[in-house]
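Problem 12. The chain below contains 125 residues. Write out its predicted structure in token notation.
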Amino acid sequence: MVDMFKDEDTEQFFQLVHMFQRSALLHMGMIPDQEGNMMFNLGEAKAGIDLLRMLQSKTSGNLTDQEERMLKGIVSELQLQFLKAPTRQRNIESDAAQSETIREAFANPKSGPVEDLSPSEESEE
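Solution.
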């Protein structure tokens, strides 16, 4: 990846971009934190995206075409994922709740949810 940058300043600039990108992805539940947990803080995600948009604006005309395309692509992808984040959060929370219900059913079978699979009296006739 180092070979794609023309100089050390460009490399450091994209390290900064990558830092904001990872922060936004983390807060949109797209990558796990250090403990493997998914987190959702859309305010923090938006702040990271906004900072990248500000960098994009402030560096306009000072980047090569390739650098501008890379930065534009990163910002565009983050904005798209930001729109999808609430649905992703609901799905993850729903899956976690369902997993907890199943776990509870196995841990405490008497108090867990029950589905009666025995034949009904009507079908025995």
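Discussion. The chain has three helices and no strands. Students who got a different answer should revisit the alignment rule from Section 12.3.
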